Amino acid sequence: MKKFTKKENSWALYDWASSAYSLTITTAVFPLFYKSSATNAGVSASDSTAYLGYTIAIFTFILAVLGPILGTIADYRGMKKKFFLFFFTLGVTFTALLAFIPFDNWLLLLVCYTVAALGATGANVFYDGFIVDVTSNERMHLVSSRGFGLGYIGSTIPFLISIIIILLSSNGTIALSSTNASRIAFLITAIWWLLFSIPIFKNVPQIHFIERDGNPVIQGFKRLGNTFKEIRKYRTLFLFLIAYFFYIDGVGTIISMSTAYGTDLGLSATSLLIVLFVTQIVAAPFAILYGKLAGKFSEKKMLYVGISVYIIVCIYAFFLETIVDFWILAMLVATSQGGIQALSRSYFGKLVPKENANEFFGFYNIFGKFAAIMGPLIVAFTSQLTGKSNYGVFSLVVLFIIGLIILSRVPEPKETSTMNRITN
User: Fold this and answer.
1) Where are the transmembrane segments (predicted)?
2) 6-407 sits in which CATH class?
């Protein structure tokens, strides 16, 4: 196998950099910090959770609407890097600013978090789009999987450092309040994200682009309109996106609901953090393994494997009773979580017209964002209807089966095609 090039490594290293935000800010430290701040200010637990939910819904909706529009404009010569830099700077700056907001100002914390999240998720639209500029169709699965593998490893390092500081401060080993320890975690995340993003800005240029013809904003809206008008010319792309919508919804729901499952089994916060940490470690080599196996068996076949594993996860979760069961479930998820995400990205990257990559990755991110809504609703409705949360988890099997059936209808991408338009 040919060694990874400087461009491929520089692109993949951004996953190593930005995943620190996903784990430390989105999943672990910030939610606990915010909840503590809101409680200290007299906000009820239910209200503070609702406000956080509204905040996530707001920035998710904003990005879902803006993604294809910004992506279309970014397809013009020299625009992709500018948009990427803008959202990256927004994300890093406001992540760092979280450390300087007064602890009792929970509302300002949410505002700052919203802007940081807009920056992080917005930058990912253009980062994903850059995959067509750094490698060939034949190596896309390897490069995408390498990115996810590095992301899992990279995210655990600043996370582990942050957790150690927080735990040492909480038991009095170091003369630091828990509040300031969390603030240090925000700064560590921002610095980590900034430093390891330097290679992608230095070494990855925009190779595929469209020449400007008049005002790029006006032309971008016109191109977006033409895409919808000619949607039948992109049948394969949108058929894959529909399949992706269903199965990634199941993946995202299991990730977001995992701590709730663990809490129901009586796991402490510390135990849950340990499970989360180990899951990240196990997921890294499996993400890379999926990429290598995709080169031998094809991405589509490995996506079948990943979806099948998640169907097993849903069935196993139905019989979940002990903490040992939870660990088994977490490790099963770890084997396929990164692989299914990485191969979805590379498979889609093969299908998109290279010079329109950002426009279509904007759609890719829309489907991923809106998919995050349906799964939790299915779990909530089924759990309330039956009175048992394990029935709610089991109901996600439907999403994976639908995704699997639709994916089976998606033609294999043509390796030698530059436009990859399917007109049948």
Assistant:
1) 12-34, 54-76, 83-101, 107-127, 148-169, 181-201, 237-261, 267-290, 302-320, 326-348, 360-379, 391-410
2) mainly alpha
